[in-house]
Amino acid sequence: MSQQTIVKSYGNYINGEWIGKALPTREVINPVTNEVIGYVPNGGTKETKEAIEAAHYAFREWSQTTAYERGKLLRKLHELVLENKEELAKTMTLEMGKPIRESRGEVDSVASFLDWYAEEGKRIYGETIPSHNTNKRLQVWKKPVGVVGAITPWNFPAGMLARKMGPALAAGCTIVIKPSSESPLTAIKIVELCEQAGFPKGVVNLVTGSSQEIGDELMANPKVRKITFTGSTEVGKQLIEQSAAQVKRLSLELGGHAPVIVLDDANIDLAVREAVASAFRNTGQTCVCANRIYVQEGIHDQFVEKYVEAVKALNVANSIEESADIGPLINKSSLNKVIEHVEDAVQKGAKVAYGGERLQELGENFYQPTVLCNVDSSMIVMHEETFGPIAPIQKISSIEEAATLANDTPYGLAAYVFTNNVSKGMKLIEKLEYGIIGWNDGVPSTTQAPFGGMKESGVGREGGHEGIEPYIESQFVSINVE
Length: 482
Ligand code: NAP
What we know:
The chain is an alpha/beta fold and 482 residues long. The protein contains 13 helices and 23 strands.
């Protein structure tokens, strides 16, 4: 399949028009080849203001439509996403290097979120509260929050957008999307499908360009009532500070540092399979990737041996190839971070059980899937997000040690537990300060369940019925009927 199929200039979508082709552009680079595959406008404050204005105007009518009308448009979008699955998946793979089979899976998850929220919008129930006074009727009405600013990361350019756009639109909000500069094309293609689906102008808007300018305007403009952000904890903290001025509503899906705990009684083959899937999905560049693996001493050596065998079998290749399991890192600085983390660990006594080298014959940004042993908490890899294909394995003696090590981090997004002993599993999970737990399961996230983190991994949840709540305000109405 040719990699050079989408070299064209794209616009920003504001008030139902594709505009901005006259603006200076930003390049979108394929991390496999480092070639330019498209250009997007370098939008900023002015374009963001226009998009917010359009969304604010459109909100008046959109918020008055019924959940059934909105659901119908979301269903249409769901169908269009599935009809265009191959193009969306290919765009994603070309712009951010996700192995093509994983990209297809992400498009399926987009469709699934749209389908779910098309229905969930119909279940936003108000309340009637028993009154303390015969002359009073007490009700809670539910209202859409208003204009939503949605800022998304590069590593799930479609999935993270759908988890925001689906519930926001279903609830009756309008939206201004700011995709990552590394991977804006997938979001642009989804917005093209919104246009085809027939969303009224101004309901969905998209601005690419300077994150500082776009972000600052989204935060400073009082017409934006809510920000939903997925990205690094560092930027999330900046947004919290900026939100104070207007008490702007915030949902934050931030970084993680996921521990995997494998107890002596675990099914080793299953634990190996799932912990490999978790650590190396999207080339180790997911917020819920297994970042550190703690294995109890009774099975440690056997686990490491089998884990290395499984990692050796992963095919590192150009992500567009069907057989690719592992692709490139997103860019040079991500690659350098991986190299630094491995060097730091080795310098402090870690042993490279497999990998540990760049694969320059495949391209500038490729790195071998790597397994490290003899690791300990002093190593950067054991407490900072590496965001690369590295699996460090540490031997532990007890459940208590596992829980203490697992919780010794400011993050609290996902954790994984492997044991066939129900009692041990339950007691261990009760101790873990994490928003998502995979018990004998390396890939727990799914549309109908809440996804999000404790501690510095975020605020709020996406997915499931909880995922629509951040887009709704409760309005208490006390009616005097005397
Ligand atoms: P990032 O650098 O924080 O960027 C995320 C988004 O924020 C991008 O669109 C970026 O735009 C924008 N941005 C950057 N600075 C900003 C500012 N000052 N104001 C407003 N927006 C700003 O994160 P990333 O590298 O794209 O994504 C990786 C991170 O996301 C990892 O930490 C990962 O764990 C986390 N993540 C979390 C989840 C979750 O559900 N919890 C899911 C996926 C990823 P530009 O690209 O234009 O700079």
